[in-house]
Amino acid sequence: MPYRSTDKTRQKKDAKRTAMMQAAVRVFAQKGYHAATVRDIVSEADVAIGTFYFYFPDKETLFNHLFEETAAFLLQAIDQALISRSSFPAQLEAAVQAYVNVAFYEPAVVQLLLVGGMGSAPSLSERRAEYREKLIRAWQRALNAALERQQIEPQNTRRTAEALVGALDEIIFHLLSSPQAEQERTAAVRDMVQLGLRAAGYLYAPS
Amino acid sequence: MPYRSTDKTRQKKDAKRTAMMQAAVRVFAQKGYHAATVRDIVSEADVAIGTFYFYFPDKETLFNHLFEETAAFLLQAIDQALISRSSFPAQLEAAVQAYVNVAFYEPAVVQLLLVGGMGSAPSLSERRAEYREKLIRAWQRALNAALERQQIEPQNTRRTAEALVGALDEIIFHLLSSPQAEQERTAAVRDMVQLGLRAAGYLYAPS
Amino acid sequence: MPYRSTDKTRQKKDAKRTAMMQAAVRVFAQKGYHAATVRDIVSEADVAIGTFYFYFPDKETLFNHLFEETAAFLLQAIDQALISRSSFPAQLEAAVQAYVNVAFYEPAVVQLLLVGGMGSAPSLSERRAEYREKLIRAWQRALNAALERQQIEPQNTRRTAEALVGALDEIIFHLLSSPQAEQERTAAVRDMVQLGLRAAGYLYAPS
Amino acid sequence: MPYRSTDKTRQKKDAKRTAMMQAAVRVFAQKGYHAATVRDIVSEADVAIGTFYFYFPDKETLFNHLFEETAAFLLQAIDQALISRSSFPAQLEAAVQAYVNVAFYEPAVVQLLLVGGMGSAPSLSERRAEYREKLIRAWQRALNAALERQQIEPQNTRRTAEALVGALDEIIFHLLSSPQAEQERTAAVRDMVQLGLRAAGYLYAPS
DNA sequence: TATGAATGAGAATTCATTCAT
DNA sequence: TATGAATGAATTCTCATTCAT
Fold first, then answer.
1. Is C15's CB less than 7 Å from nucleic acid strand E?
2. Mean of the pLDDT values across residues C48-71?
């Protein structure tokens, strides 16, 4: 019986690949790019070191890939939330909610984006910059639309978008660090939404 | 200005030490903790590698020390600005101005604080957390005072403080990355102040 | 032609084996022992890596085997040419012709013998030495016969034999490297024969 | 006393460098490029592995350098012998003598050139080809001069030069392998010279 | 027979750190 | 004080080889 490929083997391989990637996300998220050794990753995934190189070309490529995938995932979640609502408050709430959901369901994902900062993988800088830029642009689009509808005060929407990105990151980072994260969750979302509305200069009664 | 030994005398003796610390700040700020080698630092300072270990116990200790000193410096600048004013708008403007000034006069200081993120020196996490905490507390103090005076809307001042810290960092990071940083400077300060006032829910006419 | 199992039957069974051996010769000849990986060989032969180890015990054994087979093949061709003629010039011409033929029909065979030099497979040294020794002995036999017949000048035939082996290898190597190898072929054979005759001190008119 | 550089230190460093290079030549000569590990080299030189990389950028660069140096040395010895004589027999004798001398005083040098064959360092091919080419050209120059003076028979001097290079290498290789190398030395030189004269078709009595 | 996922020993290279001078 | 040669632990990555299917 000459070894059936693309049968169950295929699925098993994919499963292992995925398992290794998840292990890698965890290790990277916890230790950062440099401190995380390939040995850390394979021992987390409980495979031999050669297996790593069977699935991935090298540590840096994997990290970049993971970062990109992760960034795209979060970006998509937030973008989707912004696009599928029309009023600015609704957009803000949906986006914040989406971000918080991801942060709670996949904390490692968010951690990875945070550790993927300066001084990580040598070739990550541009990728990181692109990701931040896209995030900022998504927010700015929503702000511009609100501005046109005169729902928010006149302002430099680019800067407000930057501020929102930075502010939400910081708050979520602290939220995840907090021991009572789960209980604070709802309040935190409400706080962030109100804060965002204020920061954007939302005009409550457009009479 | 940070890293000037203690005060005035023994300037000659510390000349080399100071040179190395400044070199280290530059190199760390540019490359991040891991990518910056001790060789990079000593060659930037134009001394031999042995000299490094005469003045400092090791790379990590130096980095932590530098981070702490640098963090204290920025913290002090912002704190001072917040303390020496009484109205919230004045505080905000002074603090933002102070931050921007430091960012322009000593960009490496700010860079260092940014690269000193997750996954830098293994033992930095707590130190970094402390620094951020202090920064947040400083802002929160100002917000609480304003809240008591009913100059800002009721809110969770802790979260607003976190947001301010994250927002300003993000904006200043982009400002420093911009090629026309110098020209945008004044406008950026104004934007940040207005943004801060809005985010804090500043009540314009407390009649 | 080397590496055709034994003779005639079990052709089907050995088809894969043969394909792999031919692939191996090509790859070894092109890259040398160390640089040639088992993966290179199986991918050239279009089989899986496990198949390699079903047919051969390991890389080194295969290389040694191939070298031996290849050496025996060339040796036999040259030996045959030397034995089946009686006059020294005829022997020389036939042997050179045979060598050149092999070099053109099976360049990989010759390449393999050349790359199988020092520093190839750890255990190859003796085998290589044996092969060279046999080649030298074959030539020496012919020289001794000619010497007895007083067709060549008195000389240390061992050294002349060594010289012939080294000289022909070098010339054929350059010939194969040359882009116009095919055109030069006839002239090269003539040159080598004349050279051999001179080197052996062939006495033209033993009147 | 702040460490006097360029004093004795300099000399010591150069001495060590040289010692390491000699150790490397020995190891490379014995094992070939691939089988020789950096660990082999440093243990032969009795230093730590880091020391290797303090003196040399990497294994391949060192090998190439060694090969080139070694090749230049032998080439120069032979070239010099060929140039400083006028009659072809004198040139031949001087060159052979020079080669044999090098082979006996610095056997590793010659070994290195021999192991530096195909399949050695990836980047060595061209260098090796250049070296062989120069050697061949040197012999061809001598042959051409002799041909002009009608001291040798008409012939393709390029091929004769290739033959001489290959023949001498082979003979010297066997000579070095022989246990009674030293005793055979003089006879071997005489044999090689006579062989060379015959191979070149030297015309004894140019009356 | 045939496959290819999995293994792990071993090689090259880096870099923080030490120490004789 | 200052130097820089020397060290070796630690890391990344390769590749021959095994083995369950």
1. no
2. 95
